[in-house]
Amino acid sequence: MSWLQLETIIGQQRPETLEPLLEELGASAVWFRDAGEEPILEPKPGETPLWSATIVAALFPEDTDPEMLAAALQDVVEGSELSFTRIDERDWQADWQKTLRPLRFGDRLWVVPDGIAFNKPGISVRMTPGLAFGTGEHPTTAMCLNWLESQSLSGCSVLDYGCGSGLLAIASLALGADEACAVDIDAQALAATRNNAEKNSCSEKLVVCCPEEIAAGRQYDVLVANILSGTLIELGPVISKLLHSNARLALSGILEDQAEAVCAAWSDWAALKTSMQDQNWVLLTGRKHGIEG
Q: Which of 38-42, 46-50, 81-85 has the highest mean pLDDT?
């Protein structure tokens, strides 16, 4: 069996508005991916993650008429080119699994996709591939993991704000943190985090919740936040209240030319500096005001 694959690139139009129409037209599968090099990061509360340019792809039965699809979509994707490709039946999940591999961060931390044999020395975290899967491959995640691996976390509580798959929170527990809180506004991300926590036998030490569910007055010793710079700026006053004085901070999801604005926005309660850079992405680290360092 073969399939007709449709792809189109859209801009700021929300891609999820296309999904119901594509399904109504007979799509067997619909998915989105970045048309550039932006990661999926946490949006502002109540918003849907949105890339600057998104590829919307759909698979239709092989006998579907491309001209019919083009006519039905012309008003919805006005100005966007539609491309059609005939593809053979494949085990897409198996093909994707073949591209996954264990990744090392620092000297001892490994992130291992579930289902892959692994017996190297060090600290390993198992993650289940899925929509909210954080592999650690993107520079923003990799820098956070490298930073966590370099920290002494024994006796500490860690806040992972915008947790996605829960990778950073779970890694912090594997590295010795006493407890962690994984926060996200996406129910699917929270479900993925709980699943990954069970796989790593750390559920008892991990609180998984929406931002508004954090216990009143709760504060943490360490913050990792891999979210968009605009969200970091807007939510800075909220996040800062969740941190003890002198808490260690690592902020990512920030492009090099955005770092100065984030540092300035956080300057009233934290001293931050660029400590790592990978491609155009930077990691800002520092402490909440209280002592030098």
A: 81-85
Residue extents of the structural domains in the chain: 2-89, 98-288
Distance CA 266, CA 107 (A): 31
Structure confidence at residue 117 (pLDDT): 82
Lowest mean pLDDT among 43-57, 89-103, 145-159, 195-209: 43-57
Q: What is the CATH number of domain 2-89?
A: 3.30.70.120
**Is there a contact between 207 and 177 (Cβ–Cβ < 8 Å)?**
no
- Residue 110: strand, helix, or coil: strand
Q: Which amino acid is at 238?
A: V
> Which pLDDT score, from 0 to 100, does residue 159 have?
98
Alpha-carbon distance of 144 to 165, in angstroms, equals 14
Q: Give the position of tokens 């759909």.
A: 58
Architecture of domain 98-288: 3-Layer(aba) Sandwich (3.40)
* Mean pLDDT (whole number) for 13-38: 75
Which letter, b or e, does each residue of 183-220 get, where b requires 16 or more Cβ atoms within 10 Å of its Cβ? bbbbeebbbbbebbbeebebbebbbbeeeeebeeeebb
- Given a cut of 60, is residue 41 above it in pLDDT? no
Which pLDDT value is given to residue 205? Answer: 97
Read off the pTM.
0.72
